[in-house]
Structures are given as C-alpha cells and as structure tokens.
Amino acid sequence: MANRVVEHAWAWSGGGRLPVVVDAPACALGLGRDVAPYLTEANRELHEELTVVDAVSWAAEQLLPKLAVAGQLGAVVLHPTCAGRALGADEALERIAAALAREVVVPEDAGCCGLAGERGVLDGRLTAAACRPEAEEVAGRAYDAYLSGSRFCEVALERATGEPYESVLVALERATR
For every one of its 177 residues, what pLDDT tens digit does the chain have, with 9 covering 90 and above? Predict the structure, then answer.
C-alpha cells in the first residue's frame, strides 16, 4: 500500500512539482518520513522528490499571510498533536491560533490524546486516561474556541472535556470569510 500511495502522490503532485498537502499530521508524518523503509527502490526515488507537508504548516506559510481575519476571538485553547510536534508544526499551529484570538492557551498538561489507532476509537478508557490532566486544566476556565490540528485529537478532547474542539483550519476559514 505504501508503494501505491507514493505512486499516486507522485502523479497527483505533477511529478513532484507541487507539494502533497496532507490534512492529518499523523498521515503527513507517515507519508513524509516513516514510509521510506516500505518502498521499492524505484518508489524510494520518487518519494525523495516529493514534498509532503501537513495542512496546518502549509496554511500558516501559504494562506495566513494572504488572509484578513474579520474579528479576533478573546481566548482559545489549543491542543498540539504528537505528530505535529514530531513534524515541527507546533509553531505554525500557534501562529494560526494567534491570528484568530487575542489569547492562545496551550495547556501545560497537553500531551498525547491516545486516540490514534483502533484502540483509542474502540475503547474510550485509553483516551480518557491520556486526556485527563489536560481536560482538568481546560475545565478551569471558559474559552471562545477549542482548537487542534487533527480531527483525531479533536474527538478525543471533545470526549474528555465535553467541549466542541474543532480544526484550527476550519476556524481560520470561518474567520476569513
């Protein structure tokens, strides 16, 4: 499957001319860095020519400078993702959030949400335990928005906090209409 994905990404990117923008940080990490050992030699060469970037980093670099935010929110809480951290995308996530709100709070206890893979989806105890410290910290005050860069993390944090987490990119789109 890794070989098929790289072949399709190669074709979709116009032979490596365009970046492959991936909307899930974990998938961007997997396709960009972690897939190489599973590729044939020919596909490894194609993969080396691909530019794989997560959507949050791409939006912060390519879109944010060209957009005007209609009105800033007061305070938002931001959940950085494990994969985003591994990609070095935390700064991009925070930059977009800072454009949306006067105050951006990243909980000190923000960590892995535990949702990745079927275990976190099928057994809510894993995510509940993983998110408990962050959820307790978030419950300490109200926010105008609850943001992250991954739908998986948003689901986990919604379960843990009862608050409506959404993509920072969805919030950006809404704020720049």
Answer: 999 999 999 999 999 999 999 998 988 998 988 898 999 999 999 999 999 999 999 999 999 999 999 989 999 999 999 999 999 899 999 999 999 999 999 999 998 888 876 677 777 888 889 899 999 999 999 999 999 999 989 999 999 999 999 999 999 999 999
Show the tokens assigned to 96: 């977009």
What would the two tokens of residue 133 be? 């410290």
The rounded distance, in Å, linking the Cα atoms of 115 and 50 is 28
- Residues β-bridged to residue 20: 52
Measuring CA to CA, how many Å separate 131 from each of 24, 25, 86, 110, 164? 19, 19, 19, 8, 15
**What is the architecture of the domain spanning 60-175?**
3-Layer(aba) Sandwich (3.40)
Ranges of each domain in the chain: 2-54, 60-175
Cα–Cα dist 85/103, whole Å: 21
Amino acid at 34: D
Return the residue matching tokens 């379960």. Answer: 159
Element spanning 167, H or E? strand 165-167
Cβ-based neighbours of 47, under 8 Å, separated by 6 or more: 6, 35, 36, 39
